[in-house]
Specification:
Elements lengths: L14 E6 L5 E8 L2 E8 H54 L3 H52 L3
Antiparallel strand pairs: 1-2, 2-3
């Protein structure tokens, strides 16, 4: 059977198994999705291709997890800065009413700096996420184009 394109999205409850035969030079991938099962039989060259690609895939997943963690830390820092600025502005109003004008001005300046930092973090995180999504989409388009080229070339 020859298929130009085939896609399956696995959900957390779905399973995927990989096993090899000792008596034949073959391996299988079995995918169970919503009670249905699909088995893919692979010869040695296919398994070797997967073997060579898996480290890069795992590295990519590790990078994605690290990116998400860093973005999460940045968002927490920006939120802390915004919350601190809000508290500082509240204290600045109290200080102003008490006649402590220099203290109020100092608190407002610090709040402005914290707010500017939080805004910069938000902009950088948004730009990073946007660039990451664009790069991922470009990679997907290139992979599809490569598949089509391979199909057109009879590979």
């Amino acid at each position: 059977m020859s298929i130009t394109s085939f896609g399956v999205t696995l959900e957390p409850g779905d399973t995927i198994e990989f096993w090899a035969s000792r008596s034949e030079e073959t391996a299988w991938v079995a995918i169970q999705v919503a009670g249905a099962q699909c088995e893919i039989r692979m010869e040695r060259p296919h398994v070797e291709a997967l073997r060579d690609q898996i480290p890069g895939v795992l590295l990519g997943l590790g990078r994605a997890a690290a990116d998400e963690a860093v973005c999460g830390q940045a968002e927490v820092a920006a939120e802390r800065a915004t919350d601190a600025a809000t508290r500082a502005l509240d204290r600045a109003r109290v200080a102003e009413q008490a006649g402590a004008h220099e203290l109020a001005a100092s608190l407002r300046a610090a709040a402005a700096e914290a707010t500017a930092s939080a805004t910069a973090v938000d902009a950088v995180v948004a730009a990073f996420v946007d660039a990451t999504l664009h790069a991922d989409a470009a990679a997907d388009r290139l992979i599809c184009a490569t598949w089509r080229a391979d199909a057109a070339l009879g590979r």
